[in-house]
Write a structure and sequence with these properties.
This protein starts with 13 loop residues before the first strand and ends with a strand. Strand 1 and strand 2 form a beta hairpin. The protein has 157 residues and is an alpha+beta fold. The longest helix is centred in the middle third of the chain and has 12 residues. It has four helices and six strands. The strands form two sheets. A four-stranded mixed sheet has the order 4-3-5-6, with helices on one face. It has a two-stranded antiparallel sheet with strand order 1-2.
Length: 157
């Protein structure tokens, strides 16, 4: 017979699309998804924000996840951080829906300024595992951008 010990879990503030903060006061057993559009290179962050018409994540609230090791001095992030959901595809689709009206602006800005861009998805699992899948529409939308897609899973279950 084993002894089971339950440790309290602390809910971190969750940052959602565009950098607004949602206060979650209880632990959510659902997996936490971070999905980001990440633009890096030598550029002016304010000019990028103005050109794209999107408000990036507050860099003070930057998630501490390994997105990519590189030497680019400027980083512009847009997306959701630690969003509880049981389906990875839903969260990716939500971020794409938010940026879809600016899709051509994003591609043109990255291309014109010779920047690096990609999507990063990090999933933290504590109890329940999510569905890992993307709909054909989500895949088509990702392909429009022509950017890399990185996916990390941190499973603590």
């Amino acid at each position: 017979m084993g002894l089971a010990v339950s440790l309290p879990r602390i809910a971190l503030p969750r940052t959602s699309v565009g950098g607004t903060v949602r206060d979650l006061t209880r632990f959510d057993p659902l997996p936490l998804h971070t999905v980001l559009l990440r633009i890096t290179g030598h550029f002016d962050r304010a000019a990028c924000t103005a050109a794209l018409g999107l408000s990036p994540l507050d860099l003070q609230a930057r998630p501490e996840i390994p997105l990519r090791e590189d030497t680019h001095p400027v980083e512009w992030l847009y997306g959701v951080v630690q969003h509880p959901c049981d389906d990875m595809g839903t969260v990716v689709a939500e971020v794409l829906e938010e940026i879809w009206p600016a899709r051509q602006c994003i591609v043109d800005y990255v291309t014109r300024n010779h920047l690096n861009a990609g999507f990063a998805c990090a999933i933290t699992v504590h109890d329940e595992r999510p569905l890992y899948g993307l709909s054909s529409e989500t895949i088509q939308r990702l392909c429009f951008f022509g950017f890399e897609f990185r996916w990390d899973v941190f499973d603590f279950s």
